[in-house]
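Progress against Task 2.4 (sequence-to-structure conversion) is shown through the following example record, which the project officer requested during the mid-term review.
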Amino acid sequence: RVRVCGEFALTAYKVFPEWNPMVHVVEHRAIPLDWTRYAAIDPGYQVCAVLFGAVPPREDSIYLFDELYLKNCTAELFGQAMAEKTKHQEYHAFVIDLHGAVRSDIGTGATTQQQYADSLERYKVKSTMSGNNFLYGSDNVMAGINSMHSMLRVREDGTPKLRVLKDACPNFEWEIKRYHNKK
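Structure tokens generated for the chain above:
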């Protein structure tokens, strides 16, 4: 790729070299009400990131249509932001990173998951499957990376499984483009 495409040698360290905005980013569109919606939460200390995805009923694709990128996030801020983003929409499930979810607050002893769930309940935010709580995402990093590789790969019909609505997830795009292995 360095010789043929003129890419910098650093791209060899990219975890997702398949990522290509020309392929994976599609024009913005309204997500129909019959699409199954999910929210994936990574509750970090410095940044809490949430990706909102939808699966069409008769298509093997996932569309990322919105995100939250909450710096210095508290449970209260998370609940408020989720209430605003999920307003007038039905979500099938909220999925949370297990390692981030089970960390305990030094002052209260409550886990991040419990604090976030309480905040969702306070703001009347719930999903069909997990209610005000969460399902756990897999903590197998390599399995997640391999799953992303398969979703980014272009299929025989010329489309990838993962698509991102244009201008909807700038932080996700920034991170996937720069996510790399250490030398």
